[in-house]
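Tokens for chain A. Residues wanted.
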């Protein structure tokens, strides 16, 4: 049940933070993004990746690379919203379908392995929270109506639980579960490493950010 509830709660919490606090700048989110990237990467490396290789075959790495390439394609349409970037036109008033579809594909896929890898849900919710805050902040500053903003975020929140549901009910997913999981690993590896690289502005040493990343790695190890 938590695999259904927590991803929804994470997105709605991010939306609530924006509605209540109304942040104008996203500078303070960089630490949270760094933490989320390190945490998601660590959960993937410590738990998810070894299990997929243990139950897979020697070509499982091909599917991981497919996941990395798929995420690169999705980011062409989402403009990097999965790792904290928003480069859309704020003056548009139509529902951002391209962004929604690309984020939804990503969210549905990340929901598929959650039932079999219970610790992974914590990596997903930590990843979704700053993304939801950034999306909500951008939309609140745009010309979109509040109804469209709420609709976007609610539907987006439901996509990961939809992935969990599909993994439980579709025989196709069960038959190719390991291969799909490897694709999700590739997606997570690309997103998490991109967040970590981008959080290090100008390759300058930042002790606070380093300690944040270390804390995320240690926490992920002991979960």
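Reply:
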């Amino acid at each position: 049940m938590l695999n259904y509830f927590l991803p929804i709660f994470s997105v709605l919490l991010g939306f609530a933070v924006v509605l209540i606090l109304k942040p104008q700048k996203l500078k303070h989110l960089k630490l949270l993004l760094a933490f989320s990237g390190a945490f998601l990467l660590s959960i993937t490396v410590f738990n998810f990746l070894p299990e997929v290789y243990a139950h897979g075959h020697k070509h499982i790495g091909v599917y991981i690379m497919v996941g990395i390439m798929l995420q690169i394609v999705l980011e062409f349409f989402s403009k990097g919203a999965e790792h904290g970037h928003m480069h859309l036109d704020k003056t548009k008033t139509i529902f951002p379908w391209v962004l929604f579809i690309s984020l939804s594909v990503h969210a549905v896929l990340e929901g598929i392995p959650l039932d079999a890898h219970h610790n992974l849900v914590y990596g997903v919710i930590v990843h979704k929270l700053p993304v939801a805050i950034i999306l909500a902040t951008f939309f609140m500053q745009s010309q979109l109506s509040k109804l469209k903003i709420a609709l976007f975020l609610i539907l987006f929140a439901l996509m990961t639980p939809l992935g969990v549901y599909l993994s439980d009910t579709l025989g196709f997913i069960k038959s190719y579960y390991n291969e799909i999981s490897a694709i999700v690993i590739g997606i997570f590896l690309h997103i998490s490493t991109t967040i970590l690289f981008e959080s290090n502005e100008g390759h300058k040493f930042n002790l606070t950010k380093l300690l944040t990343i270390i804390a995320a790695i240690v926490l992920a190890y002991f979960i």
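Residues 2-14+27-199 form one domain. The chain has a mean pLDDT of 85.
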